[in-house]
Amino acid sequence: MTSAPGQSARLRTITSPQNALLKDLRKAFAKSEPVEGYFAVEGFKLIEEAIRSGAKLKAVVFSESGAQRADRLLPQLSAHTEAVGVSDKLFASLVETETPQGVAALVSVKHHELDTLLVEDALLVVAVGLQDPGNLGTIIRSAEAFGAAGVVLGEKTVSRFNAKAVRASAGSAFRVPLVNESTEKLIPRLREKNIRMLATSSHKGDPIDQAQLTGGVALFIGNEGAGLPREVMAQMDGLVTIPQSEKVESLNAGIATSILLYEAARQRRG
Q: What pTM, to 2 d.p., does this model score?
């Protein structure tokens, strides 16, 4: 592997596909779940966001092509982060994207407790059965943009460690508190804390500009096709709708949530 001047001392070359570190990276990408407390991310910008957010990186792996841009990341890495170089072919076997950028990393998982989110006047998003990782990433990004306390991931929701979800969050996944909890356990806790539960609907409920989105509010977002399960919907305190053309059946889950979060932030500023 070739390296730019000054880089060779930082990059350790690995040639074996059976190397333990590479096996962990490959497994984390394939399963969209952490391995030994670390999850996988790919791309220069995303890894820079992880570093900027104070995340702990176990290792950064460069392809031979990616190593030509390693000087962009190497100065930002902690002395405890291992920097590794592999061939382009070996790198392609580790990641899920068809056109990889040439750099991937194992990032430490940040753990958050549900209790830290259930505070007075909290604005929360609760995803139940959300399956599209792009939607989840968009929701996480908007949650940070509009001041939500965090996002709760209910049953049958896509993994927050899915590479597409992390990428769509544009770095917010490293900073927004994310908690996995079933609605069976979550809903009683929300009631204890007097946090109102609101569901979204395509054409029913209070128009968004008339809905009360101040105080403690949890916005429930359901599956892209089926919506919220009936047993969850039955426990909601209200429905909120975004006025739209009747020609449009519904909005994308990520977009709809972003609009709701914007309106909630607007009301709270007022």
A: 0.93
